[in-house]
Design a protein that fits this description.
165 residues, mainly alpha, flat
Length: 165
């Protein structure tokens, strides 16, 4: 729906389209808000709860539910507060669309590769690809960032959260 080319619309047409986007933001924000509350409720019923003062496998779902709640509220507020003047509508060009499609393919490939290869092999490779796609061209920067982020997340989950990866 948002991939329409808006360059041929008049300022009035763009303003009308932006009003529709604000309504969509509000509706989607309300749906996500309800889902975040439901997700929090499901998390509260997890069977492997740790002591109240310790991080455990149940901590991260609470973080996700809380973040989703806050972002949903912000989306709803944005739907109401955004100014009503004409916006700068930029069409999604072929090159940008291909970059988004490639990013999606890389992420799907990552999910599949983690299942079949391993986290410790797949993650640094995918991070290196994402850094390169993001514009980083320094090999040392890409290698260090990929390795350190992978090691940091691995240590966080295995030592702090005590989750087997």
């Amino acid at each position: 729906m948002h991939l329409r080319v808006l360059s041929g619309l008049s300022a009035k047409g763009i303003g009308r389209h932006m009003n529709n986007l604000k309504k969509e933001n509000t509706v989607i924000g309300c749906i996500l808000l309800a889902l975040s509350v439901y997700y929090w409720h499901l998390t509260a019923n997890l069977q492997f709860r740790q002591a109240a003062h310790r991080f455990g496998p149940d901590t991260l779902p609470y973080v996700f539910a809380g973040a989703m709640f806050v972002l949903s509220v912000l989306l709803i507020i944005e739907g109401y507060v955004k100014n009503t003047g004409p916006a700068n509508a930029h069409p999604l060009g072929r090159q940008k669309f291909l970059r988004v499609a490639l990013l999606f393919a890389v992420l799907i490939g990552y999910v599949l590769s983690v299942m079949y290869i391993s986290y410790l092999i797949a993650t640094p490779v995918v991070l290196a690809v994402l850094l390169y796609m993001g514009g980083s061209r320094k090999p040392l920067e890409i290698i260090l960032t990929s390795g350190l982020v992978t090691a940091g997340v691995y240590i966080l989950f295995t030592v702090v959260f005590r989750v087997r990866i």
